[in-house]
Design a protein that fits this description.
Layout: E1 3-9, E2 12-23, E3 29-36, E4 43-50, H1 54-57, H2 82-87, E5 91-96, E6 107-108, H3 118-130, E7 135-141, H4 146-157, E8 165-168, H5 174-178, E9 179-180, E10 183-184, H6 187-194, E11 207-208, H7 210-214, H8 217-228, H9 231-234, H10 237-244, H11 250-256, H12 263-266, H13 270-273, E12 281-286, H14 290-302, E13 308-313, H15 327-337, E14 351-355, E15 360-364, E16 372-380, E17 384-386, H16 394-397, E18 399-404, E19 415-419, E20 427-441, E21 447-455, E22 461-470, E23 501-515, E24 520-526, E25 552-557, E26 565-571
Helix pairs in contact: 3-4
Length: 574
C-alpha cells in the first residue's frame, strides 16, 4: 500500500507518494514514486522510467549537481531536478521498469527486447498516472539517456494522455550505442553493471539474458567460442570473464555476444519507431558525442509530427549528475503543450545549432541549418592536408605507417596526424563527413579511429568530431550512402586480406564548427585511442573503445592512385 509523506527539499515542503503500484495489461505491477507540492490539486505529470532504480533518483533532492570528474558524479541519476519539477507546478513520477528495482515481471535482454515491449509498459504507466486524482490528465516525460530512449519508445505507442516529450541526451540506435563503426564501446557496461561513475541497473534475479533464454547450451557454447577467438576479446579480462560467467552480467553478455547489427538491435530501434510519433517532440543533444548526435538527427528527421524541434548544443558533451540542465527549455515546452500557456515556443525555428568557434547559434527549419557543399582535403606528405590532390603515384609519394602493439605489451598509442596550414579565412563546417582511407594492414582486422581537432594559436585544442570503423566491417550500404555521408550496414564481417590495399570510408559524425583564422584543423588516425586526455576526461570512466589485440602494421597510402582524403561539409557563402 502506497504511503504519503512530507519531505524537506531545501526549505521547501514536498509531498511524496511512495511505492505506488501501477498495473500493466498482463497483470504485472510496476512501482513508482510521485512527488508534488500537494496531492489535493490536480496537475500535469512528468513521468520518468528506467531500470536504474527510483530510490537512486531521489538523491537529486540531497546531492548538489556534480560535474566530471567529481567522485560523487553518478551517471545513472538522470530523472531530473525533482524540486524544480514540483516548483514549476508538475507532479514528478519516477518508476522502475519491469524486472528492475521493486517492479514485478521479467526483463529479458537489453531494453527488454526479448520480453514485453517497453513502449507498451510506458503506455500503461502513463495512462494510469493520467487517471489519478492528483493528475489533470496531461502527461509528459522527463529524463536523459535511458530515460530519453524510454520517451521515444513511449511516444511511438501513442498513449492518449501523453501530450508531448522533451528528450535531452537520449540514446536511439541501440547498435551504435555500443559499437561505434563496429568498434566496441565500454560505456554501456558501466551503465548496466555499475562501474567507475555509474551505479548501474537496479538488478534483480528477474533481469535475464536474451541469449541464455533463446539458445541451447550447445549453440551458446559455439557463439561464446567464436567471440573468444577474437584477439581483441582475448586481450581484455572483463570480456573473457563475462563470456565464461554470464550470470550477473546478463545485459552485458548479450551485447558482447552480438557484435554485429541485426534483428535484435533493430526490432525496437527508436530511430525506426519515430515515424509513429504524432505529438510535439523536442530533441536536444550536445556536441562531442557524435554517435548519439547522429541518431538524434536521424530520429528528428523520421518524426512526422508537425511540432518538433532539434537543438544541438555546445561542447562539452557530458552533463551534470544529478541531471539539472535544460530544465528552462523543458518547462517552456511543457507549459505550452501540457498547460496550454501561449509562450511562443511553437513559433520558434525548428532547428538551432551551436557553432563551435564562433560560439553562436544558427537557426533554420531543417537540418543542416545552412546550405553546404562537400569538398575534399587530401592527405599529403609531411603531415599536411591540402585542397589539391597528390599528382605522383605510390612509387614517388610513398605511404605513411604506424605499428600498434597490443595493449598487453604497451600502453603507447601509435598515431599519424595531418594538418591544414594556419587558416587565413574562417572554415565553416556543418554536417556529416567522410574520411576515405586507402590502407594496407598485415592482419585480417584492425580498428581505424579518427579524431578531428581545432588547434588554437596558443596550442590549446578542442575536439570537433570523431570517426570509427572496424576494418572487417568496411562494407558500405550503396543505396543509403551519399557523398560525405557513408552508411555501413555492420551486418557481417569480411576479413581483410593481409597486404591488400583497401579503401575504408569512415563516417565522420555530425558537427558544427568554424575553424577561425589563426587556427588549424588537425586529424589524428590510430588503431586505439588514449584512455585519458582532455576530451575523455570530460566523459565518465570506461568511455573508451576496445583496443586491438593483434600487433598490426598500418600503411596509409595518399598518392594519385590512392587519394586518401577528408570529405567535409563546407558552408556555402552567399
Amino acid at each position: 500500500m502506497a504511503d504519503i509523506r512530507s519531505i524537506d527539499a531545501g526549505g521547501r515542503a514536498i509531498e511524496v507518494h511512495k511505492d505506488l503500484e501501477i498495473p500493466m495489461r498482463d497483470g504485472v505491477k510496476l512501482v513508482g514514486d510521485a512527488y508534488a507540492e500537494d496531492f489535493a490539486t490536480p496537475r500535469p505529470a512528468l513521468v520518468a522510467l528506467s531500470p536504474y532504480g527510483k530510490e537512486l533518483q531521489a538523491l537529486a533532492l540531497t546531492i548538489p549537481p556534480q560535474r566530471r570528474p567529481s567522485p560523487l558524479w553518478d551517471g545513472c541519476i538522470e530523472a531530473g531536478d525533482i524540486a524544480r519539477v514540483v516548483e514549476n507546478g508538475y507532479v514528478h513520477v519516477i518508476g522502475d521498469l519491469r524486472g528492475s528495482g521493486g517492479s514485478e515481471g521479467e526483463h529479458i535482454g537489453n531494453y527488454n527486447a526479448g520480453g514485453v515491449p517497453l513502449g507498451e509498459d510506458a503506455y500503461d504507466f502513463i495512462e494510469w498516472v493520467a487517471a489519478q486524482p492528483w493528475c489533470d490528465g496531461n502527461v509528459g516525460m522527463i529524463g536523459i539517456s535511458y530515460f530519453g530512449s524510454m520517451q521515444v519508445l513511449a511516444a511511438a505507442e501513442r498513449p492518449p494522455s501523453l501530450k508531448a516529450i522533451f528528450v535531452s541526451g537520449g540514446h536511439y540506435d541501440f547498435y551504435e550505442t555500443t559499437y561505434h563503426g563496429g568498434v566496441m564501446w565500454f560505456m554501456p557496461r558501466a551503465a548496466r553493471e555499475g562501474r567507475g561513475g555509474d551505479s548501474g541497473w537496479a538488478f534483480t534475479d528477474r533481469i535475464k539474458s536474451r541469449m541464455l533464454e533463446t539458445y541451447s547450451p550447445e549453440e551458446l557454447k559455439a557463439k561464446v567460442a567464436e567471440r573468444l577467438a577474437d584477439p581483441d576479446v582475448q586481450a581484455w579480462p572483463n570480456l573473457v570473464h563475462t563470456l565464461h560467467y554470464p550470470v550477473h552480467h546478463e545485459a552485458w553478455f548479450d551485447i558482447v555476444t552480438n557484435d554485429l547489427d541485426g534483428e535484435w538491435y533493430e526490432e525496437r530501434n527508436p530511430v525506426n519507431l519515430a515515424k509513429n510519433i504524432d505529438i510535439p517532440v523536442w530533441l536536444k543533444m550536445e556536441q562531442g558525442r557524435g554517435w548519439t548526435l547522429d541518431s538524434t538527427i536521424e530520429t528528428f528527421l523520421n518524426i512526422p509530427a508537425k511540432s518538433k524541434k532539434l537543438t544541438i548544443g555546445p561542447y562539452p558533451p557530458m552533463q551534470s549528475r544529478p541531471w539539472v540542465e535544460d530544465h528552462d527549455e523543458m518547462f517552456r515546452w511543457y507549459d505550452k503543450w501540457l498547460k496550454g500557456i501561449d509562450n511562443g515556443v511553437d513559433t520558434e525555428p525548428a532547428v538551432e545549432v551551436f557553432v563551435e568557434g564562433t560560439r553562436e547559434y544558427v537557426t533554420a527549419e531543417t537540418w543542416p541549418p545552412k546550405d553546404v557543399e562537400y569538398k575534399s582535403l587530401y592527405l599529403r606528405g609531411r603531415q599536411k592536408l591540402s585542397t589539391e590532390p597528390e599528382r605522383f603515384g605510390a612509387d614517388v609519394a610513398g605511404y605513411e605507417g604506424y605499428f600498434q602493439a597490443p595493449i598487453i605489451t604497451t600502453d603507447q598509442i601509435a598515431m599519424l596526424t595531418w594538418s591544414t596550414p594556419v587558416l587565413e579565412e574562417p572554415m565553416e563546417l556543418i554536417g556529416t563527413g567522410a574520411f576515405h582511407l586507402f590502407a594496407e594492414i598485415d592482419q585480417d582486422d584492425t580498428n581505424f579511429v579518427a579524431r578531428f581537432w581545432d588547434y588554437a594559436p596558443n596550442g590549446k585544442r578542442q575536439l570537433v568530431s570523431t570517426a570509427y570503423l572496424k576494418a572487417s566491417q568496411r562494407e558500405l550500404d550503396p543505396e543509403r550512402t551519399t557523398e560525405g555521408s557513408p552508411i555501413h550496414p555492420h551486418t557481417r564481417k569480411v576479413p581483410v586480406v593481409p597486404g591488400e590495399i583497401n579503401e575504408y570510408v569512415l563516417r565522420i559524425y555530425p558537427f558544427a564548427a568554424t575553424i577561425l583564422p589563426g587556427h588549424r584543423l588537425v586529424v589524428e588516425l590510430s588503431a586505439n585511442e588514449p584512455m585519458q586526455d582532455e576530451h575523455n576526461a570530460l566523459l565518465p570512466p570506461d568511455s573508451f573503445h576496445l583496443p586491438i589485440g593483434r600487433p598490426t602494421t598500418h600503411k596509409i597510402y595518399r598518392d594519385a592512385q590512392h587519394p586518401s582524403r577528408l570529405v567535409l561539409p563546407f558552408v556555402t557563402r552567399v
